[in-house]
Amino acid sequence: MAKVLVIDYEKCTGCRICEQVCTVKHEGVVNPARSRIRIIKWEQEGRYVPMVCQQCESAPCQSICPVKAISRDENLNRVMVDYDICIGCRMCVAICPFGGMSFDPIAQKVIKCDFCDGDPQCVKFCEENAIQYVDASEQSLEKQIAIADKFSGTMRKVATAIASV
Fold first, then answer.
1. Which of 11, 57, 117, 165 is deepest in the core (most CB within 10 A)?
2. pLDDT digits (tens, 9 = 90+) for 101-159
3. Cα distance between residue 136 and residue 63, in whole Å
4. Global pTM?
């Protein structure tokens, strides 16, 4: 079963531990600038939003890559970069609508989430459970339930408003 990373930004405290464990796993050092997950602080909202590759089915980064260094790994449901082919042009970074692709200034290469080969460290170390690695079908069902719940609440409000007229 395909899995996906699910981010609940409302649980994120902005501790940035996910960024740290990501760089330790991939680079052997603590350097958030080299992380595959980024915590974005929304000042006006007072929120922290973890941003990570969405592993798109029709990935724009894959489509734009001039040397076809980006491919889909169906086994882990992820988009991968083949560094033996990548020329570092950064077109994938520019086109990603989610900011999921980054450029590592030290290694001089593009970087993105690779699910830590099926064992995402950010999930393991997130004490608030703001990041989860779940079956894609489970995520879809959770979204459907949430939308149905919102719709139901809206319909109750409409019914109440109509009844009071």
1. 11
2. 999 989 999 999 999 999 999 999 999 999 999 988 766 555 555 555 655 666 677 66
3. 23
4. 0.79
Which residues neighbour 119 within 8 Å (Cβ) at sequence distance 6 or greater? none
CA distances from 131 to 63, 74, 90, 122, 162 (A): 28, 22, 27, 7, 41
Token pair in block for residue 36: 């595959």
What backbone torsions phi and psi does residue 30 show, to the nearest 5 degrees?
Answer: -95, 110
As a 3-state breakdown, the chain gives helix, strand, coil percent values, each rounded to 5, of: 35, 20, 40
Distance CA 95, CA 99 (A): 9
3.90.1720.10, 1.10.10.10, 3.30.70.20, 1.10.600.10: CATH of 55-97 = 3.30.70.20
